Amino acid sequence: MALVVLGKESLDHLETWARDCFKEVRASGSTRPSSEPDNAPSAPTLTPGEGETVAEALAKTMRSPWATPPAMTVDLEPLRGMRQLIIQWPMPPVRDLWRNSPTMVLSHLLGHEGPGSLYAALQDQGLANSLSSGMRTAHEDFSLFQVIVHLTKEGQARWKEVAALVHAHAGLVRKLPPEDASRAWQESRDMRAIYLRFQQIDPALFSAFADYLRPENTLTWRVWKGRGRGRIKGGVDASESGSGQEGGAVEATVRGEGEQPLLEERWYGVPYGVSPTPAKLLQAWSNPSERLESRLKLPGPNVFIPDDFSLFCDTEGQDGGSDSNSGATAAGGRVVQGEAKEGVIKAPDLLETSDEDGVGKAGQLWHRLDTSFRQPRAQVRVVLATPVISDAGAKGRQHAQIMADILHKVLAQRTYDAQLAGLHWGVSRHTCGYVLQVSGFSQKIDLLLQQVVEAFLDPVAAAGGPEEFAKQFQLAKERALMRTKSWVMSRPDEVAHYYTGLALKLSDDLVPDPGHIKAAEATNLEECLSQHKEALAKVLPVGLVYGNTSQDDARRIWKTMTERLDAAGCPPLPEDEYPRSLTRPPA
């Protein structure tokens, strides 16, 4: 047994505690089992050159943990249910390249989730649920880079095809032109710089890397991007030189039903088998077909990365909005709020309306300029109110929820760049209809909102066609059924929160009684699409633009969205069908 005692007390005091608490522990007399496998090859001996330090020798020497064996495959039978494929490649040491982070660029290129990416290709075929890539471990004399794929049942049965796609995508990285590699590095550097500039308070675990970082770098090393482009190119080349199949490892929790594991792991008793990867399989992975490569592409320029972080509240001539004490006024000058009081959060300004009741054919646009948090971020929240949803029964609300769920899935790939650049979006069902929401750096939120609106107006095209939409509908229906049936297992505080919202008409989530479960089971593709089309024919947009945006920008964003609704054939909602929650009583 090894024991470490840490405390503020004196050493004598700590020793007394340790002896009193652990005096009954006796040595068993057994020898400590080695973690090394039998007959494991030892790494080559490191011999520094004349006048060279050990650190300098390590920085240019690669000592693979597997010495120089052929590529191998490890099959595992996990103790708990999981389906996972891990592909590892040994690489030269990269610790001394921490300022340039070549492995972060590799992780970005291999782990991207946008259209044409490795993950998109696997997901579109129903082979993977998630994918990640990055360093497995980094030491002074070698590194291990890995790609982890969480497989579906279909992916488990076709894991060799999954591995072939991974190697094909790695091949694209090796062929990446220098100018594209430079752009990918620059984008990664820009995003890390933005993250560092606007990062939130986070625990700092210095001890994990204090052995090779100077004290002044311990806070910034994870987001630092140096200026040494030559060093970056060398680091990427070094990483790619180890990304071939020789010396790599494939770890798969995918053994077939008829195969018996040959070995048992000594610590936890996990059955596993180790075998050289067949040469024929390696050859196929090393030379992917054109058909395989044609399904993949590396990420292009990220148009969502912001470069303007100015604050509108500091711009000369900008109105402070509702943070001023003059009260909020409508576009025509009518006061819609009384005089603001000190210490009270002011209401936003009503910028757009077309009748004296505050609700018109163009809906409502509210705006509030933030002068408190002083961040270059903003949020746009649009309620698309429609009686088709607000007056719908249990089945209609299930259809609306399924549609929102489908939109989340089909938009995930095309908005991945926005997520990398610090923007977020959402589509959800509301008591009045639907809610579209985007947030993040204010310079790019209108671009993201346009993508969300386009997908909402034509979800079938966004999904890639009727066949793909039908597939997504079936998956969303299954999730809706599981969600409805398992609601009764929610935590008590969640149940209480639901009923509070229901009483205040803030929520109308589906109560899991037998009738609603039957409604979820009865949902079908044709009725879901028909209801969505009907909802678009009776919609009233109500929006709030809040944060680092001027009134002119808010009007521009709103005009772009409402013009797109008009172009899609969404007529104004008749006045007698306005939701009650959007109609104020007379003064």
Question: What report would you give on this structure?
Answer:
- Residues 235-252 have a biased composition (Low complexity).
- The protein has 587 residues and is an alpha+beta fold.
- It has helices at residues 11-22, 54-59, 102-111, 118-124, 153-157, 159-174, 178-197, 229-241, 279-286, 290-294, 387-390, 394-414, 416-420, 445-457, 459-463, 466-486, 492-503, 514-522, 525-536, 551-567; strands at residues 72-76, 84-91, 128-138, 143-151, 249-252, 263-264, 271-276, 349-352, 364-369, 377-385, 424-429, 433-441, 540-547.
Count the helices. How many?
20
Please identify the structural class as seen in this structure. alpha+beta
Q: State the distance separating the first and last CA atoms.
A: 78 Å
Q: Which parts are unreliable, with pLDDT below 50 for 5 consecutive residues or more?
A: 223-247, 319-340, 356-360
Task: Choose one word for the global shape.
Answer: globular
Q: Looking across the biggest beta sheet, what order are the strands in?
A: 3-4-2-5-1-7-6
Helix content: 25-40%
SSE blueprint:
Elements (H helix, E strand, L loop, with lengths): L10 H12 L31 H6 L12 E5 L7 E8 L10 H10 L6 H7 L3 E11 L4 E9 L1 H5 L1 H16 L3 H20 L31 H13 L7 E4 L10 E2 L6 E6 L2 H8 L3 H5 L54 E4 L11 E6 L7 E9 L1 H4 L3 H21 L1 H5 L3 E6 L3 E9 L3 H13 L1 H5 L2 H21 L5 H12 L10 H9 L2 H12 L3 E8 L3 H17 L20
Parallel strand pairs: 1-5, 9-13
Antiparallel strand pairs: 1-7, 2-4, 2-5, 3-4, 6-7, 8-9, 10-12, 10-13, 11-12
Helix pairs in contact: 3-8, 6-9, 12-16, 12-18, 12-19, 14-20, 16-18
